[in-house]
Amino acid sequence: MKRxxxxxxxxxxxxxxxxxxININLKTLILTCEGTLPGSRSFGLDREFLDQSPQxxxxxxxxxxxxxxxxxxxDITILNVEGDxxxxxxxxxxxxVGRRQ
Length: 101
What we know:
This protein has 101 residues and is an alpha+beta fold. Helix content is 32%, strand content 27%. It has two helices and three strands. Strands 1-3-2 form a three-stranded mixed sheet, with helices on one face. It starts with a strand and ends with a strand.
């Protein structure tokens, strides 16, 4: 059974210039399936993490997200990803971002 992301909260841990633009870019990156954007096939996340157990899915999501963020949104870094899954397998994720030094 495929697990679906129910909600994503993005929380800046410090003052991040242009946070509204970054918020949109980050959510677009997360919600785009890798390979579906013509001209930029590597943009988006591979959905492999959806086939894992809830905790493994959250961990794999965090690893993949950090890799993609460093490539496509280089002004920020992913500091932490927290998540919960309900009994139906829906994931609720919180992503903490900061400025890349």
